[in-house]
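Bit of a strange request maybe. I'm writing a small parser for structure token strings and I need a real example to test against, not something I typed by hand. Could someone generate the tokens for this chain?
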Amino acid sequence: MTIFRIAAVAFSAFLTAPAVVVGSPTRAEAAPYVPCPAVKPLVPPPAAPAPPPVGPGDQAVGGDSLATTGLAIPAGAPMAPAVTATSWLVADLNTGAVLGGCGPHEHRTPASVQKMLLAAALMPRLDPTQIVEVTRADLQDLDPASSLMGVVPGGRYSVESLWLGLLLRSGNDAANVLARVGGGSAGRQGGVQAMNDEAHRLQANQTHAATPSGLDGPGQYTSAYDLALIARATYAREDFRRYIATRVAQIPAEEGTEGFAITHDNTLLDHYPGTLGGKTGFTDLARQTYVGVAERNGRRLAVTLLGAETAPLGSLGEAAALLDWGFALSPDASVGRLVTPDEKKDDHPLVAGKSERQGTGILSAFSLPVVLGLSAAVVLVVLALAAGRWRKAVRQSAGQPAGRSGRDRVGSEP
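Reply from user aminoacidic:
Good idea to test on real output. This should exercise your parser:
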């Protein structure tokens, strides 16, 4: 019968249709491991607790080639320079292309580069002209030997002056004050929570702040990839670019507060061509850390590195070497990309598993509801045809002419 032939052809086409994964896909496997070019430190670093592992869903954020604890560089590219940093990344801030990295998603301790996350979180919230009074609580838990802007209890400073003290002198005192003011009724801890909220918004999944300054705290980590996301967010702001590139700033006197000058600490400003600014960091646990940006011929590259040692090059020398390597690459070279806040959090490449390839069967090609729905439709057609043939047979056995309805005609022989 024609209808049965049509149903058979349709169902056969359904069974042999190309597989389309609509169920739970399998994540792409990690990139093949290639050791990072490394320089053995002249003095072994002190022992440190093992960082937590990276979750499977976070390893390939930005591209499958970044899902490695080792080296990721473009095919055919010259080998990256050997450094002491245990994790690093070079990225184009204009295009979002990741040019290369070493263990890009691995958890590392940030030190003062965490202050960039404080800026990303609170610069949009705070009025730079607001005058803030420093409290004793802002300073009571700070080591006088640590890096400080130099504010005093009862002193009054503009928010802009505090940002300059944070970024030029890596002021831990400025970080505490800004976090307290930006944290609103929740105080300093509210500022830290804002930092973690911003990290989540940026999809900086390996980043967790415990202190606003980057001084070591429980469970405080970041990654080279996350720092590039944070750098992209901060360098998109005109005020941040202006602060971070300032060589010398005059902190004006306020009522009851003397003015003073601060100078930029150790960055590549005036030492590496095209440097737009940078942020250093150091603790015994984190070792040397650095985030910096330089521009040449319209290309704006960021370098982030964690876990570097002071010799032979130090974090600044290693950053310069990595920037040189990045600028020497073709503008279209990449191993991944910097994700953006507005894209889906699980939007990275997938691969089909063994049961999800073409021609492996109906259940691997379609979701179960689709299979059941189409199967039910075929069954209903067959039942309707059977009922029509039965009614025709009854009429004929009773001596009645066959009806001329569409239903009977559809079920007739050709």
